[in-house]
Fold this protein.
Amino acid sequence: MPLFQIPQPTRFDLNFSVAGIRVRVHPLFWVIAILFGSASLNPLSILMWIFVIFISILIHELGHAFAFRRFGQDSYVVLHLMGGLAVPVSNGYDGGYTGLTPNQNIFISLAGPFAGFLLAVVIILAGVGIGGQLVINVLGIIPIPNVVLPYEFGTLNRLFDMFVFVNFFWGVINLLPVFPLDGGNVARYTLIQTDPINGLRNSLWLSVIVGALIAIAGYVFLQSIYMAFLFGYLAFQSYQALQYRF
């Protein structure tokens, strides 16, 4: 069963709306948020991670949803175990985005990560505005901004750093050309436009290669079993799609 499918509604779902966009939070969504904070035995840190992951993924998916709306397409947001989805709706059916051009689909795909980048910038400006200093830490090859606040704002400083880390780091990761991540969609629609015959196949091969490399790098350099499993699985999914389609 695909990890990124729309989960079935349950009676434990959290339902609300933002600016007319329906949002459904599946109960298993909270598992990924808790896992992020599980490295710390501090209950406050775990609660902070849950809050940061919830707000960050919600903003990301709302970025997609507002981009859909810009092109006259209704959608709703589902937060689930593997993150979130902005699901287009056409004539009452899920997944019905019809009439969108490749460039419009590229815009929609980019809107999610850039909504997260914008949130991170707002957090940074807020931190600097209350007396903090901006420091650039480097994690691998990705520069991660860090807001350093006076000692009396220690808890707030950690909260700011969590927001900036999640929205910058995972925003960049999400732009990698691995399907069905946003970068994978961008690569797919770009290659289809440049090569209508082989574009889809080339995008899937790109997804297989990049996904496998990131899985290996995530395990070897970051010691992250989660990243190794996620990108390994995505690479395998793309390979399966190649076998099925071609």
Observations:
- The longest helix spans residues 43-70.
- The radius of gyration is 19 Å.
- Helices lie at 29-37, 43-70, 102-129, 154-174, 182-194, 199-220, 225-245.
- The chain has a mean pLDDT of 86.
